[in-house]
TrEMBL record:
Keywords: DNA-binding, Transcription, Transcription regulation. InterPro entries: GntR_C, TF_FadR/GntR_C, Tscrpt_reg_HTH_GntR, WH-like_DNA-bd_sf, WH_DNA-bd_sf. PROSITE patterns: HTH_GNTR. Residues 7-74 form the HTH gntR-type domain. This is FadR/GntR family transcriptional regulator. PANTHER family: GNTR FAMILY REGULATORY PROTEIN (PTHR43537:SF44), TRANSCRIPTIONAL REGULATOR, GNTR FAMILY (PTHR43537).
């Protein structure tokens, strides 16, 4: 789920080829001419093959004997992979990514907050408080995004449901994209709205915790809608 960390020619080849596939410049089902692509990107076959292995792990391509390497149908792409999310955004698909994220969060997070209010322990509350403190002291978009992600991971872990606590793997890549956009465009303080959730969780009030998270998500969706509208204007 994490971004590919390759550097240099290898990393650039992964990024260039992945972006072309996601943008539709190389169509689904197309068989990739490795020799031609290598000349186009000015890379060796070794570099190209290693890059294709990375993209295969993301579900974008597959290699078959006697048929060569082809682009897989979108249904097979790992749309939760942070690189794929970034390439979709760069290709103009940001609104769809953020819409899907908002719907997933609306399903998961109010229920998680309600469960956390019933199951949280002192360690959970300490981590939620620490995340709030990070929000208060965060300077710049990167620090603000990190604080927000820490808070959401803490809330999911406070459910004490192992599967639910791992939902951060599914929502974190797109949440990073959403947070980066919002924190760059808005200067409002996110700590008070998140603190309302923590207060309800601390008091063991599941309905209030769920309602507070729903209000937080409504605000997030409104912020994103405004930003996307401004970019499209």
């Amino acid at each position: 789920m994490t971004a590919y960390s390759g550097r240099g020619v290898h990393g650039q080849t992964v990024a260039t080829l992945g972006a072309r596939i996601v943008a539709g410049e190389i169509a689904e089902g197309a068989v990739i001419d490795l020799a031609e692509l290598g000349r186009d990107l000015d890379v060796s076959m070794t570099v190209l093959r290693e890059a294709l292995k990375v993209l295969a792990a993301k579900g974008l391509v597959e290699a078959r004997q006697k048929r060569g390497t082809s682009v897989r149908a979108r249904v097979h792409w790992n749309l939760l992979d942070s690189d794929v999310i970034r390439w979709r955004s760069e290709a103009g698909d940001t609104a769809a990514v953020l819409r899907d994220l908002a719907e997933v969060r609306a399903v998961v997070e109010p229920a998680a907050a309600s469960m956390a209010a019933l199951r949280r322990d002192e360690d959970d509350l300490a981590e939620l408080d620490a995340a709030l403190a990070d929000m208060r002291t965060a300077v710049g978009p990167a620090a603000q995004v990190a604080a927000d992600l820490r808070w959401h991971r803490a809330l999911l872990r406070a459910t004490h449901n192992e599967m639910l606590s791992r939902m951060d793997v599914f929502i974190e890549p797109a949440l990073r994209l959403r947070d980066a956009l919002v924190h760059e465009a808005h200067d409002d303080d996110p700590e008070p709205s998140h603190a309302v959730v923590v207060d309800a969780v601390r008091r063991g009030a599941p309905e209030e915790a769920a309602a507070a998270v729903s209000a937080l998500l409504d605000k997030a969706s409104s912020d994103v809608a405004g930003i996307i509208g401004e970019k499209d204007a």
